[in-house]
Structure formats: structure tokens, C-alpha cells
Amino acid sequence: MSAAEIDLRKKLERMSLKSPRPRLIDVIAADRRDGTYDLIYVFHHEGAIVDHRYVVNEDDDITSIADLYAGALCMEREIIDMYGLKFNGVTGGFLLDPSSPKNPLRQPRKEVAKDV
Amino acid sequence: MSMIVSSLKNLLSKPDTVRYPFERTDIPSNNRGRVVWDMERCIWCRLCEKNCPTKAIVTDKAAKTQTITRVRCIQCRTCVDVCPTNTIAMEPVYSEPGPAREVHTYAVGMKKGEYTVGLMPLSERDETRLRKR
Amino acid sequence: MSRTSVIPFGPQHAAFLEPFHLKLQVEEEVVVGAEMSFGYNHRGMEYAMAQDFKRTQFLCERVCGICSFHHSSAYVQTMERLFGIEAPERAKLVRMIMMEAQRLTSHLLALGHIAETVGYENMFMQFFREREEVMTLVNRISGGRVHYSMNAIGGIRKDVTYEGLKDIGETMDRLEPRLLDLRSIVRKDRTLRKRLIGVGVLSKEAAFDWCTVGPTSRGSGLPHDIRLTGFDGYGVNGVKFRPIYYDEGDCYARTMVRMDEVIQSVDLIRQGINLMRDGPFLNAVKGNPPAADAYGRVEAPRGELMYWVRGKNEVQLDRIKLRTPALVNVPAVSAMIKGARVADVGPITVSVDPCICCTDR
Questions:
Q1: CA of A5, closest CA in chain C: separation in Å?
Q2: How far is residue C274's CA from residue C261's CA, in Å, rounded to a whole number?
Q3: Does domain B27-132 sit in CATH 3.30.70.20?
Q4: Which of residues 77-96 of B touch A (CB under 8 A)?
């Protein structure tokens, strides 16, 4: 585990212990188009959105937060399917099956409005 | 009210359903349905073609025709809203499902509501997929 | 010592409206564990929606047929934040009225569905009869039964006329006594109470742990409702609103939350009509979405619906992410069915109102 990830984990743990306890809304991944990915943890805390943003590499082993929030498991599995990122102890296969295209959201985009 | 009272009430009242093939339900007059052109008024501005979100409309200025792929139309009313001369209207019908790969062409000189039926042009990918079958 | 056996439940099952699979581990009659698999309905919506921000306005309605207007409202609200504009008051109120009308159709469908799952055809018919009233109403107002196509980035595409508002009000007056009758039936009815009370309990802590939203979390005593904070139309323009919640956490509590919210929606529609003033209804936008990101949230019938959009100064969007309520509610079923009987798996699953086309996208 790299220093950045230990930091990530610590911050998320601290977040989950706050009072009133923040509700996890979503874990979002987004391609930065340079081999790195945005990983955004979105919480609902005291009536507003609080987000924690991290940049991760393609082959980083990211720590799962399924032990803090059970609902996070499906979000992480979706990211594994869509982007091929690795979460410790989490397997993909949530939306895609083995014969589906790999990492569909990572691929370069088609040109717009060219489908006749 | 308890369920038994409600059931008895329903038993004695008229049914809420209609006998469908013999009787039709009312479709509201502003229901979004089939797109039709009144070609006398078309000024070939191509706004409907450009704004159509599903690219269902093809305007041919030289041949003076408007062609619509019915299966691609999603009844969003965008073409009716952008048309500057009220050429396009929507008939209040529910669109009928069907496998027909056909396009309807409206041309200048046709009577109101008349159109010719053609075959839907397919992209290369669709062609190969169909041939494989 | 009994042996564990496996029973498949779904993908095609009489209790489900859409395909998803439950692999139940069963010891005699009691469910001891469950594995879920999704993806039978995956259409790659997030990819398709990032192609053209104007066409997405129509595509996002087609993610889910039963909360189509909530999807498009969430999308246009996010895009308005991204462009830095504000929709006019009138547009917000029209959105609110139509969203509540759609909540009526959705909740009545969910209630009818649960009545059907417990084998109560008569009640199912009654719920669907009232639902048809709302469906024809929204058809008269918007021109479509399912896809309203009323939203535009910056407001609404077409104003609702005075006659339209009067029509909504009159329909609500006609509908309310019938819905109140239905509520008293659901409250008192022996069949429903025996079948649903104490079944599929989700404790408050578990509801929080599974991040549940909407009627599922409100049935477990968590008063979470995005209508209090997230959506612009509620709370700020003098709409009086208080979330409904029940503490029991069983199937009956979730059903009662929906039943009470149906009555509340009628009230909210009336409040919206009363607050309506003449004025502009569209602040049109120009240009492409800027390279920034924005969140947008609305309370869909199944719970909080969130959109996250990142633009890149082009017609394309860099990334659009949907967090649909079913994505967190449906996995929570695996916590509810532990210890339940096999016969109760259907009602428990249906009580969270699983929307698989939202989950799979």
C-alpha cells in the first residue's frame, strides 16, 4: 500500500466515524485520459454533498471500503467492470460477464453524431 | 372502508376498462404521435433535420422531399417546435410497434397526408450483421 | 443438522417485472444466504449519454420508464449548475408538479405490484385503476404517457396552460377520496398485515450501512429525503413538506411509506398549483458545457437519484455518472432475506421496488 492510499483510507475512516454519520452516496471513477483515474467518494453530510477526490494509477491496489459501508461493494464492483481498476478483495462481474468488452468506459470515444 | 365494501361497490359499478378492439379509448388531442408534413409550406431550412435527436429525418432540397424513418422517431416533438413555418404537425395517435424497416417520404405535389414508402437505408455495420444471420 | 441447498430465484420469475437473479442458500424453509447477480439489462447508458449533451436530454428519459421525468429533471438540473444558470420559478414548479405526478404513477405501480405478489389480485386492480387516472392526466398535460419530454436545459420546453393546471387540480380532487379509501384498506386489511408485518426487517443501522435511500430507508426510521435539501423546487418557494417515515423496517412499513407518500404527492401538487405565477419558463443556454463538474440530485420515487457530469468544452461530455436509487436498495435485499422463508422472498424483494433497468443502466 502506497502512502497516498494509506492517507485515503485514513481520511475515509475518519469520515465514516463523524457524527451524525455521513451517508455514502456513490463512488465515482472517471478517466483522466493519461493513464490515471479520478476516484471520487461522495458523501451526504449535514444536508449537503461532501466529496473526497483522489487520483489513482491504473495498476494501484485500492483499498475497498466495503467494511465501512456495505453498500459500497456494488459501486466498487461496477468500477472494476467499467474501468478495470483493482480493489483489494473485490471481484468484478457485477454488470458485465466474461465475454463482454473489457473496460468499456476506458476506450477512446467515437466521433459524435456520425451514426447515420 | 374495508375491502369487502369496496369489492361490492366495484361489483355493482360499471367496468373501468373498454372492450378494446371494438372500442377505442380517448387519445388527448395534444398527444405526441406520428409526424406529418404539409409540403406546400416547407422552406427547406433543414432545422428539423439538424435538431432531430435520433437523426430520423433526412431533408433532400434538390428532390424536394422530406423522409422520415418511422422506427427511429421517438415522438419528442422537437421538429414541430423548431419549424418556423408550421410545416410539421403531429397526429394524436399512439405509434404502432412493428418490424418494418421502411421510410416514409413526403414530396411537394402530394395530397395532404400522402406519402410514399421506401426501404430504410442501413449502415455498413447493420448490413454485415444482417448478412451474417 | 440440515443440509444447505441452493434455489435459483429469477432471472425470469413471476414476482419480478425485470430480470435479476437471486441464488438462495436454503436450509429447509429458511433462507440462510443469498447471492445476487445483475447485468441482464445492461445497455451501456453512461457511455451513450456522454456522446452529445443535447441528445442526452432525450436519452436520459429512456434510462427508466417509470421515473423518466425524474431522470431528465436530475440531468437538466446538473447541466444548469454546470452552465451556471438558474431555471425560472415557473419552470421549477412545473417540474415539481410533474415529478409528483410521476411519483403517483410509480408508487401506485409499486403498491399494486406488492399486492399482486402477496396474491391479492383485487387490490392490484384497484391500485392500477387509480394509476390509469394519473397516466391519462399526464398524457393530456405533456403529450406522452411515459416520456414527458417537457424538460430543457434552463427550464421547460413548453408551458403548462391555465386549462392544464385546472385539469390537474380537478383530477386530484377526484383522485384524493379514492386514494384515502385505498389507504384505509391497506391500514386495516388482515391479509396484507398478516403477510407483510415482521417480514424482511431491515434495522436502522443496516439501512445506513447499505446506504439505502427513499422509501426503503424511510421504512427503517431514517428520515432521509432529498426533497428537503437537494431539489430546488421544494422547501424554498414556500412548499410545506415533511418526510414520512416509519420505524418498523419491515415490508409493511415500506408499503405504508409509499401509501402515505401518494397522499402527500396529491397535497404537494395542490401546493405547486397554488404557488404558480405567470412568468418566463425558459432561460435558454448557448454554447457547450464548460470543463468543470457538477452534481444534481432529485428524490425519485425509489429514493435519491444523483447525476454527476463533467464537461470538456465540447458537445461530448467527459463523463456522466448516474447513481440510481435501485443500485443501493436492491443489494440491501440480501440483508433483509436472511432468516426469511422462501415464500417471503418475493414480497421482500418487491417491497424495495427493484428497478433493474436503473440498476444496470
A1: 23
A2: 20
A3: yes
A4: none
